[in-house]
Every structure is written in C-alpha cells, then in structure tokens.
Amino acid sequence: MDDQSRNKATERKRKWRAVNPEKSAEASRRYRQRNPEKAKDAQDRYKASHPGVRAEISARYRERNLEAERKRIREAQRKRYASPDWYFSYIERYYGPGAGEHYKQQHAKQGGVCAICSGVPKKEKLHLDHNHGTRQFRGLLCGDCNRGLGLFKENVEYLKRLIAYIEEWHIDTAAA
User: Fold this and answer.
1) How far apart are CA 144 and CA 119, in angstroms?
2) Does 28 map to a domain?
3) Has residue 122 been placed in a domain?
4) Which secondary-structure segment (H or E) carries 138?
5) Is pLDDT above 60 for 81?
6) pLDDT at 73 over 80
7) Given this model, what pLDDT does residue 174 score?
8) Helix (H), strand (E) counts: the chain
9) What total number of domains does the chain contain?
10) In three state form, how does the secondary structure of 18-69 look?
11) Inside any domain, residue 6
12) What is the mean pLDDT of the chain?
C-alpha cells in the first residue's frame, strides 16, 4: 500500500470514529482485552514519542472539571481523616518509630488538654511539640499555642518580654 492510499484509509477511519464514537470506543476496548501486550506496547510508544501530553490532558481535564476534582479531593481527605489512626501513622512517618505511642501516652497523661492553656481543641488533634534541634518530644499543644511558641522562636527572652508587655499594659488575657 502506498502512502497516498494509506493516508486515505487513515482519513476514512478518522471520519468513521468521529461519526461512531461509541462503536469506536467499544472496538478499542475489545482490542485491548484481546491483545494486552500489543496495546501496552502501543501506549508506551505513544508516551515516548509524545512527552508531556499526559500532563496536558490531565491539566485540561482538571480545568474543565474543577468542581468535580475539588469534590473528589475533599472526599479523599475526608475518608483519610475519618480513620482514627491516620494521625498516629502520620506522626510515625514524620517523627519516626515510637512517636505514635508517645502521643497516646502523653494524651492520657495530659487528659486530652493543651499543656500550656489547658484548652481542648475542637476541630483538630493536639500537636506533638518537640525540640527542633534534638527532635525530643515535649508535650501536646493546641494549634494556637503551638503556632505561638513557633512564632516566638521558642525564645525564653522573647516570652519574658511578652509577659512584661502584657503586665505593663494591664492586658486582660481572660477577656481575649
């Protein structure tokens, strides 16, 4: 078959596929089921000769289906966070073996409240406070106290000045 005949046949197939998308998709599915190795080889050749196309297709899909994509992500996160052990597995991966057990023991020791303000977090777990230099665990803090400690760079002098500042201006911390 010469190039001109091949081009005409390819064009006829392309037009037929455009007119018959369901039949074309079904025929492709049947071919892939009957010839999985050939289909995989063809897919690999296409990916090798068209780098970046998959990422472009995915990006266009996400753009067209933005709300559905957000919903899918929220649902996946909801399922992940609904698991009672997700946080323990997270801190085990982040801090290393034994961190989950330490969290559980410290939680029981503190009675489920923040070590600084004695508050009970409503939406989030208590944070595992640790020394960033030695990675030694200290206690469990609510999100606000954990962020505050970090914002003051765990510097005792800064915190003493903060206390002096509050006392100087008679700031009622109970009303805040």
Assistant:
1) 10
2) no
3) yes
4) strand 137-141
5) yes
6) yes
7) 59
8) 9, 2
9) 1
10) HHCHHHHHHHHHHHHHHCHHHHHHHHHHHHHHCCCHHHHHHHHHHHHCHHHH
11) no
12) 87
